[in-house]
């Protein structure tokens, strides 16, 4: 290999907002066959909005107050959306005690002596909570591809909040460019199959793995590798760190967390998903020059 051609490739990438961490990363990105993309924060803006709120057996404002009180402890996009929306319904929140984030599921806390849970259906089922009252609201959320945050107090379902996620401008173009490079695309998300399917359909992504817990994201990468694929993983969060490190090539968005950046081989500084096909194109071109 000629070091000069490598330097040129890495330098050219840098001017486009693509930081390639050395020769191995460049080598790997020239041979990728499949690109796995995280949903929340990678393909979507990470800013969500609450579309509907359905209380079960409590007042509307009390559902908002309890849900937003728990979410004071969380940094998740869902938590931010619930707190923002709650401001239109309540002026003050309850103090938060014993908050625990449950990655891939939701969160729990004690509020004025009660145990609150806010999270997905798996979380509530794990706690043996009866979801029958939410059947119609769940079906509706499913149909719209909304993400649901269910709320329970002391083992009793008290509400459902349905949230929507916004696709980043340029995401569809980036996916089209990846397909033009003969790459297979896979959407990987901890979110529900309905929410995953909606985003994948809008972007033309071929395969979806939804409801994947953070610890299992790397397993999806390994399965693809076992099937003979050379896998690039694109992510932004703590959730994605192990999958980024497991992939043949890890690409992290710079808006992401420190740990995702450390686990990556390539850091995407430009706020435009077209950096993904650009990175692969530059690497392929550089490798052709070297060989
Ligand atoms: P992703 O980044 O792919 O959305 P996460 O692992 O961050 O995956 O979250 C997976 C799911 O866990 C979310 O879609 C949501 O259902 C649930 N969840 C996680 N944190 C929270 C929270 N603070 N409040 C409500 N639900 C949450
Ligand atoms: Mg994410």
Automatic annotation (TrEMBL):
<protein>
    <submittedName>
        <fullName>Lead, cadmium, zinc and mercury transporting ATPase Copper-translocating P-type ATPase</fullName>
    </submittedName>
</protein>
<comment type="similarity">
    <text>Belongs to the cation transport ATPase (P-type) (TC 3.A.3) family. Type IB subfamily.</text>
</comment>
């Amino acid at each position: 290999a000629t070091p000069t051609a490598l330097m040129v490739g890495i330098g050219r990438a840098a001017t486009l907002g693509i930081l390639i961490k050395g020769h191995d990363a460049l080598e790997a990105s020239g041979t990728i066959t499949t690109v796995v993309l995280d949903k929340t924060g990678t393909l979507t803006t990470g800013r969500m909005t609450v579309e509907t709120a359905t209380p079960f057996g409590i007042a509307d404002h009390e559902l908002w107050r309890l849900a937003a009180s728990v979410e004071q402890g969380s940094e998740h996009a869902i938590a931010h959306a619930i707190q923002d929306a709650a401001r239109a319904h309540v002026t003050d929140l309850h103090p938060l005690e014993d908050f625990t984030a449950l990655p891939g599921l939701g969160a729990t806390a004690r509020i004025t002596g009660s145990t609150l849970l806010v999270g997905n259906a798996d979380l509530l089922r794990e706690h043996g909570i009866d979801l029958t009252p939410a059947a119609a609201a769940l079906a509706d959320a499913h149909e719209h591809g909304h993400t649901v945050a269910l709320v329970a107090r002391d083992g009793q379902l008290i509400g459902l909040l349905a949230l929507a996620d916004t696709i980043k401008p340029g995401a569809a173009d980036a996916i089209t460019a990846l397909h033009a490079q003969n790459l297979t695309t896979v959407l990987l998300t901890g979110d529900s199959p309905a929410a995953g399917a909606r985003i994948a359909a809008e972007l033309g992504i071929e395969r979806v793995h939804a409801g994947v817990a953070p610890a299992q994201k790397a397993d999806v990468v390994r399965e693809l590798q076992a099937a003979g694929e050379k896998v690039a993983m694109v992510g932004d969060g703590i959730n994605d760190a192990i999958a980024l490190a497991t992939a043949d090539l890890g690409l992290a968005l710079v808006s992401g967390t420190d740990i995702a950046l450390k686990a990556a081989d390539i850091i995407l500084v430009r706020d435009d998903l077209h950096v993904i096909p650009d990175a692969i194109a530059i690497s392929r071109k550089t490798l052709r020059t070297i060989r």
